[in-house]
Design goal:
23 helices; mainly alpha; two-stranded antiparallel ribbon; 2 strands; elongated; about 0% strand
Length: about 475
Amino acid sequence: MWDSSAFLGALTPKFYVALTGTSSLISGLILIFEWWYFRKYGTSFIEQVSLTHLGPWLGGGGGAGEADGGGGAADCKVWRNPMSLLRGAEYGRLWSAARRAPLTYYDMNLSAQEHQAWFSSGAEGPAEEAMARAWREREPGARVAAARAALAIRPDCAPALLLLAEEDAPTVQEADRILRRAWRAAEAAWRQSSAGGACTAAARRDAAVLAHVKRRAAMCARRLGRLRDAARQFRDLARDAPPALHALALHENLLEVLLEQRAYADVQAVLARYDDAALPRSAAVCYTAALLRARAAAGAPARSGAELAALEAIRRAIEFNPHVPEYLLELRPLTLPPEHVLRRGDSEAVAYAFFHLRHWRACDGALRLLGAAWAAAERGAGAGGAGGACVQCADRELLPAHHAVSVFPRRRAPALLPLAAALCAGTALLALLAHRWPAHAHAVARAAASQLDPRKLHTLLAAV
């Protein structure tokens, strides 16, 4: 039988010195790697591996859904951004000015799939085939060339005119002019395909094209300052939109236009209609409701009922999407919103703040209440966050590389982590020196022990 006492008695002091130095060196390297990984990805590598791989084995239940704050896969659903910009007249300006790509390939690929499903499904003919190629192309020049080829075949091809207004028009005025032409062509095609009341695939497709043209024309009217026309068109679209537009949340466009008009009673009516548990919530609905509460509390005494109600509404909005306040308070730089957003994610926060920051500025005291609620939310933030790792990964796919993705709650590295790494490295170095020069290490240790004589320390403490 193996004798452990004989084995332990045979070990020399050099073994313990080498063991101490090796363990300290490995611990220091692990701490340095953890610090680098946290600075780069905002999370602990050991914690992530433990929750993902070791949690189920240990029976702690640490699955992905629980680690992400209970959001699950439902929080990772990507939606079309109802406030997306024009690619040629607005997104293209960032590339021309700063040579920065405003849209990611993942974002544009989602748009291409949607365009093919909306405008090219079941379509037959040379012009339709050219447009099917146009929606699949990755380069803007190839898409524009395919759209011009479709127009050469059929001058009244509404999808081709819509693509040219989106990607080829250099200004919003020019895009609005092309969209007016596309409106007439799409309306004529829809009347022809729906003649006799038959609900065919061609009629549904033409209705979707007409609705999209009207929506983009209304957004151009909003950009050009024609607020009454834009509000009227968005109201008509929200009332008569085909099923293809239901996922585009047209009421968010209407809310933004009404806020610009300062028609707060109409905004409240729209919120009462769309703030329904059966509909997917959004940052636009939550934060607009909080803005109206903050406006009602303007001029009210501190800690009054109106102010407490406004703070509670802002707290609920922050609970839904905690990334928005930093943009509204101008603590983080904005970027152009993507064409798709992730509910409760940083992409949705960028899309909301890009258009609604001016409305919060225009309301007296709204930003002050938002700052107070945000400070309280930061102090009470837990470890889970609103979305978790799934939302962060999806936002990195949607937002451009030059934009630093917001993470809430911010995982701050412990302040003593570099000090702990330095102590581990120092201990490993001392153990290595003691192993290499044991006589000198023994002399230094005796000198240090004499300096730490308890009697001398007692005398010093008594003098103090």
